[in-house]
Amino acid sequence: MLAISAVSRTSSDAKGPSATPAWRSVVALFAYAIAFSFAYLSLTAGTGALILFGAVQTTMMVVALISGERPRPLEWIGLASAVAGIIVLVFPGLTAPPLAGSTMMALAGASWGFYTLWGRGTKDPLAATTKNFARAVPLAVVASLAAIGRVHVTGNGAVLAASSGAITSGVGYVIWYAALRRLTATRAAIVQSATPVLAALGGVIFLSERVTLRLVIAAVMILGGIALAVLGRKR
Asked: Where in the sequence is the domain holding 29, given as residue range(s)?
């Protein structure tokens, strides 16, 4: 992120109203990452995904309603369709979740919801994301030291972790922050429902996973719900 930011140096987001919540965004980013990581020690992939996206959308919708947004009927229908699609997608992996893991994943979802909401006013997504990642490093180091006795590192694992953090997460967060400037909190909450569909599509393309009827139905429900939400706001 630092290298990309250095190459594309533009005006910093330290100017204007977006500078004030910088540290709370850092804390939210760190809380999301650490809670997500520990939650999946005891949750299945499907259960974790359902709790995570449920918490994200609930957090953002509640804040949107409190702040005065009033979603239109088509947006509510779109949200319901997207949530139902996520349930259909992850249902085979659902199990009765342990309380500790569920709580941690709910915390991760709420943290990501607030991180998203606080990033909507960012004028320079690249600079903002770079600062958030850099400022979260000391917190991550402290958390890592607390678990130093259980650390097991391999070369392949280190490369995958670095690419996941620097490329897929870092660059992805920059793009998401840039998109947020044109989304209401309601629409941002619903649009994020596309994440499981994109992950499943990646599994089909890169891991040779099969395209199942369940995946197709879930994708139609989620993407259709997003389309309804966008069209509902325009109308």
From this structure: 18-234
